[in-house]
Amino acid sequence: MRVYLDHNATTPLDPEVLAAMVPYLTEKFGNPSSLHAWGWEARQALEQARTTIARALGTADKDTIVFTSGGTEADNLALTGVAAAQEKRGRHVIVSSVEHHAVLNAAAHLSRQGFEVTRLPVDSQGLLDPDDVRRAIRPDTILVSLIHGNNETGVLFPIASVGWICRERGVTFHTDAVQSFGKLPLDVGALHADLLSLSGHKIHGPKGVGALFIRRGTRMQPLLHGGTQERSRRAGTENVPAAVGLARAAELSLRDREAVAKRLGPLRDRLERGIMAALPGILRNGHATERLPHTTNLAFAGVEAESLILALDLHGIGVSSGAACSSGSLEPSHVLMAMGLPRERVASSVRFSLGRTTTEEEINRVLEILPPIVERMRRVNAGLPASVGARA
Amino acid sequence: MTFPHQVKGTVVVAMSGGVDSAVAAALLARQGVPVVGITLRIWPSQRPADPSQRFDSCCSPGAVEDARAVAETLGIPHYVLNYEAEFDREVIQHFAEAYLNGETPNPCVPCNSRLKFGSLFARAKGWGATRMATGHYARVEYDPATGRYRLRRAVDPRKDQSYFLYDLTQDQLAAALFPVGHLRKEETRRLAAELGLAVATKPDSQEICFVSRDYRTYLRARVGDAIIPGIIRDAAGAVRGEHQGVALYTVGQRRGLGIANHQPLYVIHLDPGKNEVIVGEDKDLWTRDVEVGRVNLIAVARLAGPQRVLAKIRYAQPAAAATVIPRDADRVRLCFDEPQRAVAPGQAAVFYDANDPDLVVGGGTIRRRQRLSNAEHGMMNAEYRAGKANGPDPRET
After folding, report:
1. Marked catalytic residue, from B58, B59, B108, B209
2. Global pTM?
3. Residue B61's pLDDT is what?
4. Residue B356: beta bridge partners?
5. Is the dihedral angle over the CA atoms B172, B173, B174, B178 positive or is it negative?
6. What residues make up the domain containing B249?
7. Would residue B118 count as lying in a domain?
8. Do B119 and A381 touch (CB under 8 A)?
C-alpha cells in the first residue's frame, strides 16, 4: 500500500476535472479571442470558468478574476503589479517572514528595485499579530501581502482583521490563499482582500493554472505585455482547458468542503496523536487549532528530516520537509526558522499533508511503519560522530 | 570473495554518475538484491563564482542527471542528497589546509572513509540498509583465520583503487561491496552497454573532482588570503628567490621557481611555519626512510614487529619493496629497499603484503622523510634515478 501525504505540494487530478477539460483539449480547441464559432465556444467556457471562480470567492463580478499560470504568477502579478502602478504614492511594502517563496522573492525583487520591504515576525506558534500590521503601516505603504494558510505548517493568519486594517488605512491588501482555497470558506468581501491568489493543482485541478482576484478599482499594472486578453491584465492566449479544469476543481472542492474537513481534521489529529503516543521526542510545529485541517508539521528529535523522508519513501510513504520548491536545498525552512525554532528542530521537521482521498487505512499504515523507522534512526544516530548529527 | 549471494537486506549504492558505480548498481540489482541508489550533490546548485570548478565531473549536476537516468533504466529507487556543506567541511577544507601546511593531500581518501563509508553509510543504516556499494576497483574478503575483513587490489591492475580505500575501518569494510572490483574496465563498459546504460561510453574522470586544470587556481580562489609570498632558500640556508605562497608548491616540483642555477633545482621541502620553500638538486629528493602517521591497519589488528611490504607512496606509481617498522599506536617507519624520489608529506602511503602483493596491510599519511646520507647517495642506483622524474600526483581515477 502506497500512502501519499504530501497534498500541500500537489494533488492528483480528479477524474471529473479531467473529464471537464478533455473537450477543450480536443474538439473545442478554439481561441477565445476569435470571432468565429470556434472562438465563441472557447470564450463561453472561459467566462463560465471565471464566473465559477468569482462565485467561489463570494463575488458575482466575474471580471475581478484573472487567470494566470499558477499561484506563483498570481503572487508576482499582485506584488509587482501594485508596486509598478502605485510607486508614485509610496515605495513601502509589508509581507510576513513566513510567506511562500513566490511572495518573499517577489518582495526581494522589489527591494532590489528600491522599494522598502518590511517582513513582519510571527510568534513561536507561527501566529501573526494584526497589531503588528497596524504599527508597520506608514504613509508611504502601498501594499500588504500575507499568506492565508501556511503551506508548511497550515497555520492560519487573521486575514479578515488585517484586511480591515488595510481598508481603513487605504492600503492595497493581497493574500496568498493557494493552500486554503477550496479547503476553507473564502469570501473576498469578508476578508477585505483587494487581491487574492489561488492555484489549481492544490485542489485536484491541473498544474499550470491559477488565478488572481483583483478588486475593481485596485491600481495595478500587468506583468506580461502583449494582447488584450484578461482585460489587458494578463496577455497571452488563455489556457482554456486549464481554466475549465480549475473551475471544475473549485466546484468539487467547495461542494464537498465541509464533509472533507470533518473527516480530515480528525484523521490528521489521529495521525498526530498516534505518532506522539508511539514515540517520545515529538513536537508539533505551529498552533494546534489555528490551522488548516489537513496539515501537520512535526519535529522528530534526533532524526534528520531528509533521512526520514527517504526511509518512508522506501516504504511507499510520501511526505516532505516543507515547501517542495526548497527540498534538496540546504536552507532550513524559513517558516520554522521565523518561528524562532532551534535549527536542530527545524532540520528534523517533517510535514504531513492529507488530501480528500486520504483514508483511515492509510493513516493506520503510517502509524505502523513510521515509529520503528524513527526508533532505528535514533539508535543509529546515537552512535554517530557529532559531525553527522550537526549537518543541516 | 563470494557476493552477492550473501547479501541480506538493502544495499545502498553510491552512484557518482559514472559507468563504474552504474554497473555496480546494475550487478547488484540483477541478482535481485534490493538496491537504493544515492548520489551526493557536492556542488552548489547554482554556478559557483569560481570558474575553475568543474561541472562535468563526479557528483556534478550533470552527473546527478546521469545517475538518475541509470537508476531509471535499472528500475531502482534513487535519491540525491545535498552534501555540499559536508563535502566542503570534510574534504575540501582538509585539502586546502593540507596545502597550507606544506603537504600534498589525497582528497579521495577522506571522501571515501568520511563521506561515502562514513556519514552516508551511517544515514543508510537509518534507512534500513545493511551494506554499502561503490564503483571502486578493489575487492573485499573475509579472512576466517584472523576474523578480519581484508582489502585487495582489483582484478584489473590498471584501474586498482585500493590505494584510496586504505583508511576504511573493519566495520566499513564489513559492509562494503565493490562489485566491479572483479571486472576489468572493458568488461565494465561492455556490461554497461549490454544493460543499455547511457553512461557506457562516458569517459573516465581523471582529476580531483572539484579542481579543474590547476589546483593552484582553486586554492587562490578558496584560501587566497592565507597564501603569502615568502623566501626560497637552498638547503644550506642561502636565500635563492621568492615564492608566491607555500601552498602553491609541491615537493619535487621543478617548474615555476624562477631561479637560475647550473643544476636543475627542485622543491625539496616546504616549511609553512617559516613560510619558506626549500630548494635543492635532484639528489636531495631521494629518500629511503619515511615516517607515516594516522596509520590504519586492515589485514592485521596490529603489527607485531617489522614487516616486509610493497609500499605505494602515490597513486600513479608502482609499489616498491620496503619494511614497515611500528613505532607507536598509529605511526610507522617505512624503510624502502631502494631510495624513492620526491616523497611528499600529505600523500597516502599504502602497504601491500610482500608475500601476497594484492593484499592491503594498511596505510597512512606521509609525515616526513629522512634525507639520504652522502654514503647512501653514492650507493644509489643511477639507472633507477634516471627512470623516475615525476612529482607527486594527487589523482584518483
Report:
1. B209
2. 0.85
3. 63
4. B353
5. positive
6. 229-280
7. yes
8. no
